[in-house]
Amino acid sequence: MEYIFDLPNPAEYNITLKDIPSLACINKNLTSHVGRHTFGHMYLQKVQNLASLKELMGHTKIETTMRYVHLENDYLKSTANLVGEEFKDLRKRKRNTDAFN
């Protein structure tokens, strides 16, 4: 798999990442794992495609990708609403078709 970013190994850049929160006045440890988790979470919120996220993160199993991502109620509701709207549209189209037959 070709990587999007050419980065050193996680141990090397974890050392650099430890300085960033203090410079930003944030009291939190920043690691490569936190970065991956944040990327996965934000990608899913914006793109809403778990299969493409799995590929981007280089996972072989979707279950591995799910460990990085917390499915929020808002995301689940919005997805369910999209599906619900599609079914409403299908029912309307069917009724309109039936009316003309």
Automatic annotation (TrEMBL):
Keywords assigned: DNA recombination
Cited InterPro entries: DNA_brk_join_enz (IPR011010), Integrase-like_cat_sf (IPR013762), Integrase_catalytic (IPR002104)
Pfam name, any one: Phage_integrase
Tyr recombinase domain mapped to chain residues: 16-72
Record-given protein name: Tyrosine-type recombinase/integrase
Organism: Mucilaginibacter litoreus
